[in-house]
Amino acid sequence: MNHPSTLRHGTWNYGGSPIGHTWLIKQDWDYYDEDFYDDPPDLGPDGFAYYLLTGLSPHIEQHSARSRTFLTEAEAADYAATNLPGLTWDPHHERSDPNRSIAQPSPAKTCTRLQPR
């Protein structure tokens, strides 16, 4: 079982003001699967389950809700577009390393300042 991988990040709004964040993630296990049920886990044809995590904080580890299971990325994205008003996906969001947990922050990017001559 691998850690979830973040595929997309976006913001949604109401009345033109951004009020929430959402992440589209995939993982190779069904979050809602229970071992004692006879039903198989909900995994798509590619072997992954897709979810939308939403919340008011811009930090994924502080999300407040998880969607139902989707079997494809397109199905999850379509649901988000229909149900999150004014959803805008961040075009600069880089897909995360699938081996990195969503609870771990991204590696820091270094910034160099111009030095006076």
Describe the structure.
- The chain is mainly β and 117 residues long.
- It has one domain.
- The protein contains 1 helix and 5 strands; from the N terminus they run ββββαβ.
- It has a 5-stranded antiparallel beta sheet, with helices on one face.
- Strand 1 and strand 2 form a beta hairpin.
- It is elongated and about 45 Å long.
Which short descriptors sum up this protein?
117 residues; mainly beta; five-stranded antiparallel β-sheet; 27% strand
Overall shape: elongated
The profile of the biggest β sheet is: 5 strands, antiparallel
State the low-pLDDT regions, or none.
97-117
Distance between the termini: 53 Å
Q: What is the strand and helix layout of this fold?
A:
Elements: E1 5-14, E2 17-27, E3 49-55, E4 65-66, H1 73-83, E5 88-89
Antiparallel strand pairs: 1-2, 1-5, 2-3, 3-4
Summarize the structure in short.
This protein is mainly beta and 117 residues long. It is built from one helix and five strands.
